[in-house]
Amino acid sequence: MTFEELIKLDIGTRMIRATSQTEIHRVRSHIPPIYQTVNFEYENVQDGLSVFLGEKPGYFYTRDGNPTSDLFAQLVALLENAEAGLAVASGMAAISSAILSIVKPGDNIISSKNIYGGTKNWFSSQLSSLNVTTHFVDITNMDEIQQACTEKTKILYTEVLGSPNLVIADINKLAEFARKTQLILIVDSTFTPPPIIQPLTLGADIVIHSTTKYINGHGDAIGGAIVCSAETIAAISKVVKLYGGVISPFNAWLSIRGLKTLALRLEKHCSNAQRIADFLKEHPKVAKIHYPGLPGHPQHDLAQTQLNGFGGMLAFEVHGGFDAGVKVMNAVRLCSFTTSLGEIDTLIIHPASTSHISLSKKEREQAGVPDGLIRLSVGVEAAEDLIHDLEQALDKI
Ligand SMILES: Cc1ncc(COP(=O)(O)O)c(C=O)c1O
User: Fold this and answer.
1) In this structure, which residue's CA is closest to atom 16 in ligand 1?
2) Could you report the per-residue pLDDT of 303-325, keeping only the tens digit for each?
3) pLDDT tens, position by position, 74-117
4) Other beta carbons less than 10 A from residue 311's beta carbon
5) Is the CB of 205 under 6 A from ligand 1?
6) Residues 81 and 72 sit within 8 Å (Cβ to Cβ)
7) 188: Cβ below 6 Å to ligand 1?
């Protein structure tokens, strides 16, 4: 409608109509606009029909597709050298949708045992209720993987850096195995976005991100992304549309903003983490430290060849167990005591007194979470300030 037509309308009607007059806003915005809309309009029946028939590009309804969400997906595909991408509501939506597009009842999957607890829980509860069994393995042990593989196995699943010990999956080796055995290799690269690694270029079939973490980076938008071949994305998007796990356009827009500074932030996350790891490994109150950038990490050589930067995540164990861990948590002033990771500020968590509190001490140890273990998602603050904060907190033990 033209301005002259709009002005003749009742004020209520006018404002409803005018705020969806996208022609008014069609300018070359430097920053992409947010298409914060549920649905899309057509000029006339012929126009609508050609979109419905796929003769003309266009959108209908945001659960089926949205320009802001699609732009975010394309940018993550570009980041990962992928043919296609799909943006979804969360990392969990990415993982579940990708897997549900592949498996059928009776199938098996092989997964690294060192993965995010939510994913493990989804495999063991939701996926198993669909009669899809998960075999958890040590992802560094090819014999164990070989033994778990049967003709019913469809997927090999891993994270690049597995929790809590930052175990490194050898993507080249796993991709070779997956090719030989016709498994689909799915890699959750949430801890290690490019430029740290591009798993598709090493032979992975599908890469997943919880974009909630490093990709958005600012701790203000939950999101997920899947990147792979266009054919696979088409199959996964059918699942996403029907289960409804789409990303909100606003979260997609925030995450697009995050992508602008990803490389810059990762450089600082990595250099800060290395400095903190170097400091902690010499500290008398620290019993053990897990960081792939340290020569003492059991897979430091693989980290050097496979990764471009050792990431911003590290874990360390303090002498004195549970109580010592609690003392450090209560003493830090700069590190934020909170869950999640990959944000610009440094986040600290003591799993034994939070995420793993319901397990017994023995169960925690079996899960690789001793009582003195502290996880740090190193931010982009000045390294000296972070080191001083950790130093004064360790002094309280
Ligand atoms: C490695 C990894 N993958 C997936 C997820 C799930 O992501 P989201 O919380 O965005 O669903 C997380 C969450 O912490 C994670 O750490």
Assistant:
1) 116
2) 999 999 999 999 999 999 999 99
3) 999 999 999 999 999 999 999 999 999 999 999 999 999 999 99
4) 28
5) no
6) no
7) yes
Class of the CATH domain delimited by 262-395: alpha beta
Residue to mutate, 123, 213, 349, ligand 1, most ligand atoms under 8 Å from C-beta: 213
Ligand 1 pocket, 116 CB below 6 A? yes
Q: What is the pLDDT of residue 56?
A: 93
Atom of ligand 1 nearest to the CA of 115: 1
Cβ of residue 90 lying under 6 Å from some atom of ligand 1: yes
Q: Give distance in angstroms: CA of 91 to centre of ligand 1.
A: 5
Give one DSSP letter per residue of 182-250, joined into a string. T-EEEEE-TTSTTTT--GGGGT-SEEEEETTTTTT-SS----EEEEE-HHHHHHHHHHHHHHT-BPPHH
Indicate whether residue 184 lines ligand 1 (CB < 6 A). no
Amino acid at 334: L
**CA 136 to CA 89: how far, in whole Å?**
26
**Ligand 1 within 6 A of CB of 289:** no
- Spatial neighbors of 295 by CB under 8 A, at least 6 apart, are none
Residue whose CA lies nearest to ligand 1 atom number 8:
91
366 Cα–ligand 1 center, Å: 22
The residues of the chain that CATH labels 3.40.640.10 are 67-260
11 band by pLDDT with thresholds 50, 70 and 90? confident
Residue-wise pLDDT tens digits, 354-370: 989 888 999 888 888 99
pTM comes to 0.95
The alpha carbon of residue 339 and the mean position of all alpha carbons in its chain are separated, in whole angstroms, by 14
Give the tens place of pLDDT for each residue, 248-295: 999 999 999 999 999 999 999 999 999 999 999 999 999 999 999 999
Q: Which two tokens stand for residue 261?
A: 């500074």
Cβ of residue 118 lying under 6 Å from some atom of ligand 1: yes
Q: Domain 67-260 adopts which CATH fold?
A: Aspartate Aminotransferase; domain 2 (3.40.640)
Q: Is pLDDT of 25 > 60?
A: no
Which one, of 162, 342, 357, lies nearest residue 270 by Cα? 342
